[in-house]
Amino acid sequence: xxxxxxxxxxxxxxxxxxxxxxxxxxxxxxxxxxxxxxxxxxxxxxxxxxxxxxxxxxxxxxxxxxxxxxxxxxxxxxxxxxxxxxxxxxxxxxxxxxxxxxxxxxxxxxxxxxxxxxxxxxxxxxxxxxxxxxxxxxxxxxxxxxxxxxxxxxxxxxxxxxxxxxxxxxxxxxxxxxxxxxxxxxxxxxxxxxxxxxxxxxxxxxxxxxxxxxxxxxxxxxxxxxxxxxxxxxxxxxxxxxxxxxxxxxxxxxxxxxxxxxxxxxxxxxxxxxxxxxxxxxxxxxxxxxxxxxxxxxxxxxxxxxxxxxxxxxxxxxxxxxxxxxxxxxxxxxxxxxxxxxxxxxxxxxxxxxxxxxxxxxxxxxxxxxxxxxxxxxxxxxxxxxxxxxxxxx
Length: 394
Ligand code: FEO
Prior knowledge:
6-stranded parallel sheet; alpha/beta; single chain; 24% strand; 394 residues
């Protein structure tokens, strides 16, 4: 347990979880995570911004006690998901006079999820401010910076933005501030891919709004604090843009080697044509690595054999996840083999109904891949190259 000072009167009082390896029972966390909670002490009032995951609630309380905090006037809730709100009941036990400050939708969610009484909540609206004496909190209501009720909080005098999930990274570190920008860029990209990418179109506008605030620091609720916000603002500008890269992602699974042979041949053909190829053997890959690759790729080619009457379930998991994450990919195709039938290609394409893609002619063959199959894969590589050229990616 430890606290850090961002600026005079602004403390990190959260919890670091070096050991956590899975989030939402879905997202691998190779670098652990942190649940950042911040204490802002104005000359008249004190506000706590977000709490921590309930598994770490005693660390938050201990940090507050160690700082000698005897009164909290406001608890700002930027997001109702329990990794930030889950310690609210415990904090309210220790600081029963504190008022929760959040937007109307978030009040509904914390009432549903944590049974917080409605009369404990002061509702704020977009652009509203909360004076703390010599410090002022300003609220930006930003739905879909993960959930529909999310908001950002800006500390005007110190120019610190507290965006909760937005701009975060699942990265556990003992340092408060970003130490290795390249490492955090990679971790933040994984986080964006897994959590923010489905809401790309909304977030693009919020990034511009945040730029207009000209923050000196961005202090998210996961990962280290950005002392040089340009890094993460530039990254989000790129990731949320409509620009795709000359890259082909090939998530695949192969049972007896035929689909593997097709993937290998197609990958070589694409490389020979000047494209970057990222194959992911789905039985071995960290699904987060696949998500990162989907941030920039122009094309996805799904490689799957037919199992009984449809795609291999492992391939469908990746396709389903891709549909949820809604990457800005423009072209899709399917390759693989079957022995007695099925509707594998239709099933894959149908499952991508939330991704706006043009379907390129698949290469789906009966039996093991032969010379004609390899020629068909060369034709697919030509088709992909032609589409990338049309889109001016080459
Ligand atoms: Fe970090 Fe959407 O919770």
